[in-house]
Amino acid sequence: MKPGCSVYCSRLSCDFVQAQFIGPRQFCRYNMFNHYFFGGDSSRSFYHKFLTTSSSDDAGDLLVVIDPPFGGHVDVIAFTLQCLVDDYRSIHQGIDTLLSL
Questions:
Q1: What is the overall mean pLDDT for the chain?
Q2: What secondary structure letter does DSSP report for 26?
Q3: How many whole angstroms separate alpha carbon 51 and alpha carbon 8?
């Protein structure tokens, strides 16, 4: 991480118990197997705000860490990761980004 760089963290999970410990500004209820946001428009807005902020001058880079449930199909997880990449690229059109799986 670059000196003086701030870290903006967000968690997407279908485990609502985590929201009690993390708080609504960093948590969004999400199903990674079908790229579904349980909170509707407000959750999707949270997600888009995070992707938008991830490329601002003070944020810099984006790191995605996943912890899929045991037994989850790799092709379904790959689909979700591709959705994240596509969403990131659509938000940051015109920015030269290196984003790969």
A1: 79
A2: S
A3: 10
H or E element, residue 58:
none
Residue 71, both tokens: 């037994």
- d(C-alpha 48, C-alpha 32), whole Å: 16
For 28, which DSSP code? E
Helix (H) or strand (E) segment spanning residue 79: helix 74-91
Above 60 in pLDDT, residue 32? yes
Domain positions in the chain: 11-91
Beta-bridge partner residues of 28: 12
Quote the tokens at residue 27: 């948590």
**pTM of the full structure:** 0.73
DSSP character at residue 63: -
Of 21, 83, 16, 95, which Cα lies nearest the Cα of 54?
Answer: 95
Confidence of residue 95 (pLDDT cuts 50, 70, 90): low
Number of H helices, E strands in the chain: 3, 3
Rounded CA gap, 43 and 27, in Å? 9
